[in-house]
Hints:
The structure holds two protein chains of two kinds.
Chain A: H1 2-15, H2 17-39, H3 53-56, H4 63-70, H5 74-92, H6 94-103, H7 109-120, H8 127-137, H9 144-151, H10 163-190, H11 195-203, H12 208-219, H13 221-233, H14 240-246, H15 252-255, H16 258-268, H17 272-301
Helix pairs in contact in A: 1-2, 4-17, 5-10, 6-10, 7-10, 8-14, 13-17, 16-17
Chain B: H1 12-43, H2 47-51, H3 65-72, H4 74-106, H5 113-125, H6 130-139, H7 157-170, H8 173-181, H9 186-197, H10 199-215, H11 218-223, H12 232-241, H13 244-247, H14 255-299
Helix pairs in contact in B: 1-14, 3-14, 4-7, 4-10, 4-12, 10-14, 12-14
Amino acid sequence: MGESFRLRLGKNIRKNWILYVMILPVVIYYIIFAYAPLYGIQLAFKNFIIKDGIWGSPWIGFEHFVRFFKSYNFGLLMRNTIGISLYSLLVGFPIPIVFALMLNYIRNRYLKKSVQMISYAPYFISTVVMCGMIVIFLNPDTGIFNTIRGFLGLEALDFLSRPEWFKSIYVWTGVWQGMGWSSIIYISALSGVDYQMHEAAIVDGASKLQRIIHIDLPSIKPTIIMLLILQIGSLMGVGFEKVFLLQNTLNVQASSVISTYVYQVGLLNNDYGYSTAIGLFNSVINMLLLVAANQICKRLTQESLF
Amino acid sequence: MKRNKIAVKILHSDRIFDAVNILLMCILLLIFVWPLWFVLIASVSDPSQVWLGNVVLLPKKFTMIAYKAVLDYGAIWIGYRNTIFYTVVGTILNLVMTICAAYPLSRKEFMPRNVLMFLFMLTMYFSGGLIPTYLVVGKLHLLNTPWAMMIPGAVSIYNIIITKTYFVNSIPQSMQEAAELDGANSFQFMTRIVLPLSKPILAVIALYYAVGHWNDFFTALIYINEKNLMPLQSFLRDLLMTNKMSLSNMQGLDAAASEAKLQLAQTLKYSAIIVSTVPVLCIYPFIQKYFVKGVMIGSIKE
């Protein structure tokens, strides 16, 4: 059996050697940049000493993890990370769906096209520019939000130095930037809905709202579930760049999340083992969440990702 | 398209629905457009007018002073030069790697295609994390070299999947057989038939990669220390997020001069945003339909 497999593979390689040569650089790339770092994960269980290398450094078991769980900011990091993610999920997940459903009922082609095209544009703005714009619009002296507050007779507020505002700023600017783009997949799913179902519903006297609830939503349910599972799977993966850029000494209480902490501990303090351990902890939780969300959705809706 | 006219009275609730819907879309349009519009008009307005909050819908006291200031800010040009290099070379590398992966994976006669696909996809869920990857990049002596900006992200599994799906769905197996009868090997078949037929998808992934390089800030933050190698986004961060410009050279100025300088520093932010985003914004109207296409192909399950 093994012999014949080897023979077949040998024959296959000889016959299609061009394909094997082509894919070789990609295989090497994955070995070096995806699988070799997996080998480095053992740092999470080691006391890393540079001159001894990764392999030569002594094992210390779960010491890094215990240190992290006991550290004074463990609770804060978890609260911030999960808080921001849940807030993003609750606001950022349904809005593109509602947006796609509403847009689907706009009959004026020009309005529909222009809303679509313009709503995608913010997605291509870099995170740095996005954060720069946030700073501009939230400026206590000249920003639009404080101008509006001024009109209403409220005093100016430096939003970015108030920890209690951080989550909302992060989430709602994320909605502004991503809702158009995220809606594309729903819009394309909605364009596949059989119009005969709508005609039948119209004959039966269904209102548009009823058609949305009874025809459109069930039709795009598989898409919604698939994306929901993926989102839940990255619940602990609050993006690094935007939090990092918006972070300052005044809002740090609300803006320190696991990814910024991994960066700070690892690359600024050079505490490699500890940083790796926290990163590993984070990925394991994400993995568990992904599997759990998948199982729950399978039970409840018979839809699942895998 | 002419639909069968069904004699149904228009529901009262539907009228309200339509009105609310159109109103909502118009408000949304405003919310999307105004911030971008404001940055544009503020960048060509007199700094003191922007400071006073007089610039809302149209530019006030048109001036290019902010653009002059940004052009005088030499660091931007270093960033521009580097980013153009990273974007062009990086995208070419990305494309070559993606094709090299996607084409064999799309061929039925390539025996390890399922195993390799699985191993590549696994990396979406398992990764070594920041430090182990950093150590690998360091071991290869890539830190603080231009290659650190391009090689660690040389290919993305997401784009491999899109491209492979496209190859499988749009190039029939019979074409390959016909080409073989004509004596073409699989490399010739790829360059002469598959790639020319796949121009739309190649355009899509090239644009995905290019925008990714243009906007990349994280890679430089991790791997690059040297000012001369920094991409545009790193300099932009200094300009937009910290007040380096406004705080330098402030000593010895009287109150009015330093206030003018502060206002200019603020306006400089607008022009810097425009200058750095213009390349993407200029091509955006032409390419947005391709981007949308990419999302659609990506969402098709095989």
